[in-house]
């Protein structure tokens, strides 16, 4: 299960299948992932690219719905390339893959408009789930990333502590455990729409741009424990 942050529209499908492009500077990795993606029901692989220039060309030629983008490319920064592609192709969804757990990278991916932030050594099923996600809830962050970042956050107050309702605190705690809005809604016995309302309130009160940032800020304010 993955945590979702921010808000982003889901991609449109073509002929009932999502068209997927893989971008990784390791040819063997890119080819293997493209092949695996193509074998998944409802997904169609439109090929793989090894560099930023090739990614730009294939996105223009193949019009994929989703791009799986490695952070490190031989000729550029994957997140910067993702931001450029999303700017030029507003309906495009980008799943960012990384070998590093870094809050700055997650923040940059969110700001770029990426749809997911996952670990390269994670399960293929996690990548497939992120590619297929049509909830429109935004940046999907793997729970392992959340846990690692959360453990590294030091508890220090930053200004006035926001006043949260009991339900908002409950949502916040579940977010810190890596649950997404659908799971939280189920656990709390509320609708997903209501849950998203609580999340929006949390973002506002904690002055956060994403759920990940909200969790980190809440930890620093002492609103949730280690």
Strand content: 15-25%
Query: Main sheet: which strands, in order across?
Result: 1-9-8-7-4-2-3
CATH topology type of the largest domain:
Rossmann fold
- The percentage helix is 40-55%
Average pLDDT number: 82
Largest sheet report: 7 strands, mixed
Question: If classified by CATH, what would the architecture of the largest domain be?
Answer: 3-Layer(aba) Sandwich
* Rg from Cα: 18 Å
The gross shape turns out to be elongated
Instruction: Flag low-confidence runs.
Output: 1-14, 154-158
The tally of structural domains comes to 2
The CATH class of the largest domain? Alpha Beta
- List how many beta strands DSSP finds: 9
What does this structure look like?
The protein has 226 residues and is of the alpha/beta class. The protein has 2 domains: 3-144, Response regulator (Rossmann fold); 153-221, Orthogonal Bundle (Arc Repressor Mutant, subunit A), CATH 1.10.10.10. Helices cover 47% and strands 17% of the residues. The protein contains 10 helices and 9 strands. It has helices at 27-38, 52-62, 78-88, 103-112, 124-132, 143-152, 166-176, 181-188, 192-205, 211-221; strands at residues 3-5, 18-23, 43-49, 66-70, 72-73, 76-77, 93-98, 116-119, 139-141. The protein has a 7-stranded mixed β-sheet, with helices on both faces. Strand 8 (116-119), helix 5 and strand 9 form a beta-alpha-beta unit. Helix 7 (166-176) crosses helix 9 (192-205). The longest helix is centred in the C-terminal third of the chain and has 14 residues, at 192-205. It is elongated and about 50 Å long. Residues 1-14 and 154-158 have low confidence and may be disordered.
């Amino acid at each position: 299960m993955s945590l979702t942050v921010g808000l982003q529209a889901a991609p449109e499908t073509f002929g009932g299948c999502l068209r997927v492009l893989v971008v990784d500077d390791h040819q063997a990795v890119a080819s293997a992932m493209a092949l695996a993606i193509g074998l998944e029901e409802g997904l169609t692989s439109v090929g793989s690219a090894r560099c930023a220039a090739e990614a730009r060309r294939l996105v223009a030629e193949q019009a994929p719905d989703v791009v799986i983008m490695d952070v490190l490319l031989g000729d550029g920064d994957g997140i910067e390339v993702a931001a450029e592609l999303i700017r030029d192709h507003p309906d495009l969804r980008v799943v960012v893959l990384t070998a590093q757990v870094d809050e700055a990278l997650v923040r940059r991916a969110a700001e770029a408009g990426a749809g997911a932030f996952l670990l390269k050594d994670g399960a293929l099923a996690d990548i497939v789930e992120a590619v297929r996600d049509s909830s429109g809830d935004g940046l999907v962050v793997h729970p392992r990333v959340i846990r690692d970042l959360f453990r590294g956050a030091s508890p220090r107050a930053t200004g006035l502590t926001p006043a949260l309702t009991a339900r908002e605190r409950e949502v916040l705690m579940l977010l810190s455990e890596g649950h997404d809005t659908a799971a939280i809604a189920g656990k709390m016995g509320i609708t997903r729409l209501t849950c998203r309302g609580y999340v929006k309130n949390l973002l506002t009160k904690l002055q956060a741009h994403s759920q990940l940032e909200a969790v980190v800020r809440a930890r620093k304010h002492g609103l949730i424990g280690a």
